[in-house]
Write a structure and sequence with these properties.
The protein is of the alpha/beta class and about 525 residues long. About 35% of the residues lie in helices and about 25% in strands. It folds into 3 domains: about 190 residues, Class I glutamine amidotransferase (GATase) domain (Rossmann fold); about 190 residues, Rossmann fold, CATH 3.40.50; about 100 residues, GMP Synthetase, Chain A, domain 3. It starts with 6 loop residues before the first strand and ends in a 13-residue tail after the last strand. The structure holds xanthosine-5'-monophosphate.
Length: about 525
Amino acid sequence: MDIHADRLLILDFGSQYTQLIARRVREHGVYSEILPCDVDPQRITEFAPKGVILSGGPESTTVETGWKIPSEVYQLNVPILGICYGMQALAQELGGKVEPSDLREFGHADLTLEGQSDLFSGLSDTGRLSVWMSHGDRVTVLPPGFAVIGSSAHAPIAAMADLTRHIYGLQFHPEVTHSEGGSEMLAKFAHQICGCGRSWTPENIIDDAIASVRAQVGNGQVLLGLSGGVDSSVVAALLHKAIGDQLVCVFVDNGLLRLNEGAQVMETFAENLGVRVIRANAEARFLDALKGVADPEEKRKIIGRTFIEVFEEEASKLTGVDFLAQGTIYPDVIESAGAASGKAHVIKSHHNVGGLPEDMRMSLVEPLRELFKDEVRILGVTLGLPPSMVYRHPFPGPGLGVRILGEVSQTAADVLRRADHIFIEELRAADLYDKVSQAFAVFLPVKSVGVVGDQRRYASVIALRAVETIDFMTARWAHLPYEFIERVSSRIINEIEDVSRVVYDVSSKPPATIEWE
Ligand code: XMP
């Protein structure tokens, strides 16, 4: 079975929700790919999708410079769904009119369904849906052949359709969860209107990935840097299933991992799954390299460089390795394509430990290249990895190295590990772990006086950080209950002698960052 055969193209006009459209479509079992609107048009023709979705975007069709829909999209002769800017571009190009509106709509709007359409059928008993809008311009004149299928107070043409040519336009965003019935509309478009099946499922994706890995590597040996993070863990589980002992993993313990993390990685992969894992115990080497260094960027560079040295040393002991596996995922692919075309969205690129040593001459195996993070997680669970590992908060490549402020020492790492463990353990016990996006403890380079019993204690200060965020570009500090913070604080001070004080970080991002360094 070709799980990519029934596919939709998402043409990106620069909306912050473009990836969300692709994910929603895939959640309905249909493969979708994103291409930028200024892509070489031949790629659109070659991709040969069963339907096209035009995303929203920050520009205006009412100015000369606004992006146009490439003519190849119309020539495909498949259904088209334009969202927000996509709808306006359709209206403008097919003979209607778009004008700036004084009455902008941002947030919830009441959509009244008009007439009959296959996109909305059966979605509302009342003839109304609460949808999410974000627009300044609006369509004021329908293009020939179109009918209004939905209206709102400030957009009399909030949804339009040409049911003969199967071209649709929605002023609102069906891809955001706040739009009632939005996900179902995308499902109807994919299945009923474009005629796509449901072959994009975790089981099929795994079978497909296994077949392509086997075809790519043959009898070759594959090396993987296993970090314990979600992506490399899923790659390990997948490759092990595909090629068994042809996979060798190198796990570098840099001494900056969370409590028991090294043991957990070995247990999950080596003991439970039977994966060949070489553990490089390099704690002393990392600490040595970090001695006397307080600057955060300098620490990051040293940790990255030392990782590559250790990884290469381990790799050079192996013979006959032809391939290097990497946990590259689809958003990385989209972002580097955007960066290459010079039309990138804002990118935050952290140099991830586990990255490819540049002078290692091996072919790459990247079995997650087509997948979004949530798909990677579902695959991980389907492959039998523990959900607690697959749904773990992100952990930075430099690890505790950037959570021990200033110079890193063994003692600080040990204290921080214990404090962090207490915080995370309590979050899980209080059912708060999955409600925050990232939580951790930070070791501050100051000492503070406390009294414990009758004793004066002059010891370290631990900061607790917990944030809520969707994309990690902006974040709100998590409003954890006071009683909860109190319990964590008192456990940390009582159980760890070297700590006299605990503080809670109430800074949002921006202006603060999530990590302290
Ligand atoms: P900041 O601190 O920039 O963090 O607000 C945003 C997200 O990125 C993670 N982070 C890193 N990840 N290497 C990484 O792999 C790094 O050097 C690094 N610095 C920050 C951070 O944990 C958060 O999830």
